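Weekend entry, working from home. Most of the wet-lab plans are on hold until the incubator is repaired, so I used the time to fold the two sequences that have been sitting in the queue since the last round of cloning. Logging both here for the record. First:
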Amino acid sequence: MTQGYESATNVRDAEGRQYHIALKPGEVARHVILVGDPERARRVAGNFEKVELERSNREYVTITGVHQGLRVSVMGTGMGAASTEIAIVELCQCVERPVMIRCGSTGALQPGMGLGDLVISQAALRLENTTRFYVEDSYPAVADPQAVMALAAAADAIGQRYHVGVTATSPSFYAGQGRSIMGFPPREPDIVERLARQGVKNLEMETACLLTLATLRGFSAGAVCAVYATRADDVFISPAQKDMAEKACIATGLGALHMLDEMERVRGARPIWHPGLGLKQSG
């Protein structure tokens, strides 16, 4: 032990408290909502009937509580794949077999996608660099199909419009997403058009990292994002629309966690739930 930490590789204290997120086993629920914005984490927790822990360290804000009888943690991870990687790796040292749902914001790339719509990721194009240090460049970032179904059912349950498809995860908000700002011209100014031609639904900054690490580690993960920008129209969401879209995204993520919990109970020893098994409860 050096200065209270195990080693330079495993930077945790004698209780197992992780260096960046400042959490230890027992403080994190199995069912986790991940958001980028720390304030969004607090708004997610506003839906909890009970809060048992709130922890803030660096950019990581974590709140563990109870939502409709289900123990849930929400973490604000900050922006980008690099900070998301730290969150996921350290969370997995605190809880076995987690279930993680990202509730984020995104830019829509396809015609007919509106501000405030939701996008549920089936898979993600790994434009970010972080996951290349774990897997080969051709390794797919795929969502748990159960999470895709649960998110779609949860969105339907609240009457929210949504789209399902492939997401692209960029390492950058500006040049990496083709935004040309005075003095900062992007190397690939046509990236939005190129991705849209390939049928990519949306562009954001974290989903590929979550889905890749979830497959590598072997836990269930999915992602739902609210559309804050439509790139074809070059329009950004208004504050009033943003509030409504965020609430719908959060409700969808929380609803999906409950459904995934029920799917797990119903499937038993089977590797995956499928519609032939049914569910004991709806919604």
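Second, folded right after the first finished:
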Amino acid sequence: MSFPTERPAVWFVTGTSRGLGLELVKQLLERGDRVAATTRSSDRLLAALGDGVDTANLLPLTVDLRDQAAVEQAVRETTERFGGLDAVVNNAGYGFLAAVEETSDREVRDMLDVQVVGVWNVLRAALPILREQRGGHIVNVSSILGLTAVPGWGLYCAGKFALEGMSEALAAEVADFGIKVTIVEPGYFRTQFLTEDSIALPAETTPHYPAIRQMVLDHLKLQGSQLGDPVKGAAAIIDQVRAGKGPLRQLLGSDAHSYATAKVEALRANLDATALTAPATDFPAAL
């Protein structure tokens, strides 16, 4: 089943009260599509959309993505309201800046509950619908930090690396059902992601990581001067879904492409360095 062109498409989007998620909702509604938008606060979403956006085709849903039953109910409400489901965008998430040593058990679990468990809950609820109709598109919004890791972003990277691995497996599993999967890997976008009321910091720090403390300050100062344009980013995601084709990974931003290129080059150097030693652990070839 190709993406619908003869009727408005039905989208289920998580994490919609700010950033790329909010911009996606705005552009989809402007297109005339039907949008179920989940958030932790529907009031905040509606306030962010303002009076200039026609919300007649919007289904705002206050959902805790960690709650499987709540997610299943949200997907049911979507199909009951709009009569189907065409695209799922897993966008919910937040940043966290701390050294690995400084990251508490609770902070680890909270992050992974949103970035991994929450996505899994959405997929379990949506995939039976897409599989039965033999088509649809799943967009998992990762990050360039799902491909490469930098100091201070260990927990965030852990969640995004997990999302990338699951998404690769998922893409192969559902291809025969006509379901397309896209992993979106943005660089730094000019959203509220790096604001003090959005980014999460550890409950406790140690004096042993002064470089990470400086990195946190530098990132907070970066707010408002990030390279990526969220309007263009959301449009690029919509265009790839509507086209129904494109690579598994959709990199957004020249900075993301540079980070990814450096990671590939580092992996190649690592492979070359272990080309002779890797086979040493194999059983001897049978004669």
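Plan for Monday: verify the second prediction. The CA atoms of residues 84 and 263 lie 40 Å apart.
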